[in-house]
Amino acid sequence: MADALEVRQVSLRFGGVKALTDVSFSIRKGELFSIIGPNGAGKTSMINCISGRYRPTEGQVLFEGRDITRATPNLRPKLGIGRTFQNLALFHHMSVLDNVMVGRHHLLRNNFLTGSLYWLPGVRSEELEHRRRVEEIIDFLDLQAYRKATAGTLSYGLRKRVELARAMALEPRLILLDEPMAGMNLEEKEDMARYIVDLNEEFGMTVVMIEHDMGVVMDISHRVMVLDFGRRIALGLPEEVLADPHVRKAYLGEEDEPEEVAPALVRAAS
Fold this sequence. Notes:
Helices cover 39% and strands 22% of the residues. The strands form two sheets. A six-stranded mixed sheet has the order 6-7-8-3-9-10, with helices on both faces. Strands 2-1-4-5 form a four-stranded antiparallel sheet, with helices on one face. Strand 7, helix 7 and strand 8 (206-210) form a beta-alpha-beta unit. The chain is of the alpha/beta class. It has a domain at 1-24 and 51-71. Helix 5 (121-140) packs across helix 6. It contains eleven helices and ten strands. The radius of gyration is 20 Å and the shape is globular. The longest helix has 20 residues, at 121-140. GO terms for molecular function: ATP binding; ATP hydrolysis activity. It holds the Pfam family BCA_ABC_TP_C. InterPro entries: AAA+_ATPase, ABC_AA/LPS_Transport, ABC_transporter-like_ATP-bd, BCA_ABC_TP_C, P-loop_NTPase.
């Protein structure tokens, strides 16, 4: 069985600046995989290479065995890749329901001519099915009370949840989450962590997550990869990564750490 995602020796340069250097890894289907590292380590650059926002200078990106290195960003949702953004990318003037419906756009089978003829049985049936799926996602993320609210009027934490809902509406097999808990309070983080675990386990989505809250990363991830200055310095189970001396040095800047390094590392990365 092919991996959900395989990244082969990917490098990314912007002029003379190297954002990524010879990074390789693979992600199994159904895995919750986190990418961590200090600020500027290349985490978002890697997500952008996977989503198609950036094209690697060198190397390959394969999704379910298919080379998508040169596939356009618009094609990747159709292939089964969805994402959220570090900075919110909602339509703030639209309702929560309409924002989530936007995520269904690439799944529409009817064209703009038949779409205008709502009374046709096939068109009406398709519209109802899309709305049913959207309502299921809104229920799953506990957004029922806000479904008609204008997205721009919601709290930051709720807007992050709406963006996750829109990404889920794509029905991706692989979902890329770029700092889904950034700017949230403790209660909001706990809720978001639960939603991410549930969409991985109940919806069967393979998850790739960038997150600075090390406690959450270590609690919910199956495996963790660490980047530093655009290079992979560690990959493994959460407890293995925490114990890796290269990771401790990247976060704490010291060669030899005391026995209590794990809690210190968590605090440094939070």
